[in-house]
Task: inverse folding
């Protein structure tokens, strides 16, 4: 995409809501192969997409009169291409980041804090707090070993409850405990997570569980189905 | 002193007087009043259903009043009516324009509407005689994009537009009944009061306004945000208004106190709020941000109690069903998810 400078981990502003639609339209116009948009108007679109800080007069009107003139019936093929491009871009943007291969053992409470606070802000960190004597912890550990290989962008870690320095908080009733962090924020907190599973559980069960809470990335980019032009059909 | 200068000073002094009057009646803060209320605790919601069928980013969604059906509008130029229980597509309506910003379901369930960069509000009859869904009316009069629309009934709908006005339409005749002018910036969102007598609009002039639908007048104006107000919603009891803004905060304004009660903000939030939905009780506020994240706020204590769809940010729009049993999120990857 040719658009203005975008840092890899920063989303350009206005992606959602009506302003999101306006910006998507602008990008479509700017990038479209259809060169009928005259040079002056392309410049206008570029300017509107990147408002200058000092441009207070125009700030409360989001679209200029000239831009309204540019709205017309769009080339359907160009639109299809653009939509795919948008989604592809978003997927790439989100899978950027360090990759991991296996479950990391954390040796101490400090290591735990460090991994939560220092990881890349797009990296999901899943920490399993376990106790050696608890059977379901052992099961969960092997499940996480599998998942760690299937989800290389997620950092799976485990730490012995005793090593956390807060062993009294993690008694046998609450382990195995699964904590999910991203960019230093706690997203998910599941104490005694094994109670959600049956006695024997496998990696797919843990995966399904985390997916229910929206906590795992999509495994692969589910490409849009080939267009079905189903106008008004009922299933 | 020139006349403009004088008028400007007068306006400023009036604003100060309003502020002073508001402060004078403020006898407590929401934090103090809610101090004795028990905490909500962490809210973690699960995906119950995934609605697949769109081919591009979901721009907007709206629940029907039966809390079962919902309608979504996507960049793929389609409006889809879903049965959220079975996940079936009840209707797939092709639109003339892909740049749709809003969609709405009529309370009766008979009609849906949408609009966007085409400056028009298109009404579709879902219960046509021969089973086909057709355009019933195209309401054209706005000179700016259609940012939001909400039905009052099968014969009336209110729209907000980038031309800084909102309009009440007579759907039968396709004409404007009332034009609500007063905002100094693009109107971004609107919400109708539970009793259907008022509606509120949020605009790019940093304010929200309460309008009397029948009289056509602006009853109250709520300043306070430091940037565009993108999203707005009524507190379930109709006595308060919640707004979301590009200044990264949400605010709760009480209609009777005529002022802001509390601000929902966090230093870690760095982008604007673009959608919001209160829970049925009003205790929780789901706020959707421009980075596709959703924060769940405790309305009384102004604390974040959870996030939705935590792992990577995908949410482009949200809506809570009328019975409060579920919330629906639309995402940039074309899926809608039902959570509770």
Result:
């Amino acid at each position: 995409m040719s658009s203005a400078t975008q840092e890899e981990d920063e989303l350009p502003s206005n992606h959602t809501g009506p302003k999101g639609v306006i910006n998507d339209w602008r990008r479509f116009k700017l990038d479209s192969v259809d060169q009928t948009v005259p040079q002056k108007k392309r410049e206008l679109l570029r300017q509107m997409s990147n408002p200058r800080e000092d441009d207070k007069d125009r700030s409360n009107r989001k679209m200029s009169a000239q831009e309204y003139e540019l709205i017309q019936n769009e080339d359907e093929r160009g639109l299809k291409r653009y939509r795919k491009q948008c989604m592809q871009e978003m997927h790439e943007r989100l899978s950027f980041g360090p990759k991991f291969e296996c479950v990391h053992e954390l040796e101490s409470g400090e290591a735990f804090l460090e991994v939560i606070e220092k990881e890349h802000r797009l990296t999901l960190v899943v920490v399993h707090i376990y106790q050696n004597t608890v059977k379901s912890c052992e099961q969960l550990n092997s499940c996480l070993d599998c998942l760690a290989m299937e989800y290389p962008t997620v950092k799976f870690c485990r730490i012995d409850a005793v090593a956390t320095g807060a062993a009294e908080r993690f008694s046998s009733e609450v382990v195995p405990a699964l904590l999910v962090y991203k960019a230093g924020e706690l997203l998910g907190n599941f104490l005694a997570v094994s109670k959600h599973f049956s006695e024997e559980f496998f990696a797919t069960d843990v995966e399904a569980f985390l997916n229910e809470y929206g906590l795992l990335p999509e495994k692969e980019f589910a490409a849009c189905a080939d267009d079905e032009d189903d106008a008004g059909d009922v299933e | 002193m020139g006349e403009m200068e004088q008028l400007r000073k007068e306006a400023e002094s009036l604003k100060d007087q309003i502020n002073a009057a508001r402060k004078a009646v403020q006898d407590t803060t929401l934090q103090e009043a809610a101090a004795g209320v028990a905490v909500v605790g962490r809210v973690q919601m699960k995906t119950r259903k995934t609605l697949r069928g769109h081919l591009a980013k979901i721009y907007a969604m709206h629940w029907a009043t039966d809390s079962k059906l919902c309608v979504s509008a996507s960049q793929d130029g389609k409006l889809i009516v879903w049965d959220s229980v079975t996940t079936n597509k009840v209707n797939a309506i092709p639109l003339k324009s892909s740049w749709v910003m809003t969609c709405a379901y009529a309370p009766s369930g008979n009609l849906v509407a949408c609009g966007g960069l085409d400056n028009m509000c298109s009404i579709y009859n879902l219960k046509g005689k021969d089973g086909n869904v057709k355009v019933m009316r195209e309401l054209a009069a706005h000179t700016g994009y259609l940012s939001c629309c909400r039905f009052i009934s099968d014969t009336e709908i209110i729209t907000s537009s980038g031309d800084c006005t909102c309009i009440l339409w007579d759907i039968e005749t396709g004409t404007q009944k009332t034009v609500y002018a007063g905002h100094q910036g693009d109107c971004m969102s609107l919400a109708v009061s539970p009793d259907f007598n008022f509606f509120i609009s949020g605009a790019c002039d940093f304010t929200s306004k309460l309008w009397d639908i029948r009289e056509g007048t602006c009853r109250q104006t709520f300043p306070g945000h430091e940037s565009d107000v993108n999203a707005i919603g009524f507190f379930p009891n109709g006595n308060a208004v919640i707004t979301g803004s590009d200044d990264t905060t949400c605010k709760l304004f009480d209609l009777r106190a005529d002022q802001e009660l509390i601000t929902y903000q966090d230093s870690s939030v760095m982008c604007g709020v673009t959608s919001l939905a209160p829970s049925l009780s009003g205790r929780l506020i789901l706020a959707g941000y421009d980075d596709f994240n959703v924060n769940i706020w405790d309305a009384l204590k102004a604390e974040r109690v959870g996030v939705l769809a935590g792992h990577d940010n995908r949410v482009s729009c949200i809506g809570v069903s009328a019975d409060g049993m579920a919330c629906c999120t639309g995402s940039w990857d074309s899926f809608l998810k039902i959570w509770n």
Remarks:
- The two ends of chain B are 61 Å apart (CA to CA).
